[in-house]
Amino acid sequence: MAENRDEGSPERTLADATVLAQAGYGVDPTTGAVVPPLHTATTFGRDSDNELVGGYLYSRYANPTVVHAERLLAGLEGGADAMLFASGLAAVAAVYETVPGGGRVVAPTVMYHGAQDWLRRIAERRGIGLTLFDATDPDGLGEALRAGETTLVWIESPVNPTWDVIDIRAAADQAHAAGAVLAVDSTVASPMTTRGLDLGADLVFHSATKYLNGHSDVLAGALITPEVNEIWEELQLIRRLSGGGLGARDAWMLIRGMRTLPLRFERSSKSALQIAQALEEHPSVDSVLYPGLESHPGHEVARRQMTNGFGGMLSILVKGGAKEALALTGRLHVFVRATSLGGVESLAEHRASVEGPHSVVPTNLVRLSIGIEDPADLIADLEQALAGD
Prior knowledge:
alpha/beta, 5-stranded mixed sheet
């Protein structure tokens, strides 16, 4: 929730959908514009006393449009502050940079492959320990932690691309007991259905390229914190020195995308559940991986922490192995064969072939990102592809 900013209105808290629809902005008091301005300046002036006119120095430090997007996102996640980066991996790398030499990171065996590739790199080159755990094992995280040695626990929920569900509150308790920071990749859940900070996370991460923007035309990453502390200040320094901040134009487009986030996420979630249910008993499908299905092993945990839909991502395990899974994607007509997720268009991808040599994803897995098309068209497309038409 976010506070109503119109001083002339009654004191009350507005719903997230209302705040996002108006971009946390309302009307410009000077021009009457209903769209937030785009500030493209990279440098900012001083007055005759050499004081900054508006508090901004240089866009690598901060930019008014970027700050607007950050405040909107912090409010959406219930955080004290947010930081935007030039890509999701730029934000991931900043978090990993906070791990000191000799520290240890714990993460799931199955996770976004780009983030895990970076973990492997720093483990090899910086003397940082890396322990991967099985997210489907209730005792996996606890057994992977080493009290006093583990610095960072990085989790996703749901886990990409098998959509296993990790109990964030339990993970926070375990990480904190071991003296570690818990960072949650909430890209797939989005703040529309899961707020990791409320569940005890120390940092929430988003590839803002995905659901937050939602139109496949912006690269951005985001971090949100429940408090401004030493770790957050270090992250601010890392972003400033590395030059990894988001540009003003992309921040403005991100704001534009977030204005429709509630509608897009609701539509994608409903369609994904409908598609998962339609394919669950299909004779050419070994199984459907979607936390919204009652048959999913993590369904009960998902129900507790995903409070407004189960998201638009699902995967299917195709009978016939990798060859048939690849052939299936080639027979699709409505789904677009492409990487990424969370956009308005539906995407299909044979994930193992994309992830490369470290992939542990089943070779017969096809990942589906459900957009906002008519779900009947998407189901028909999958059915004809599964039939070999």
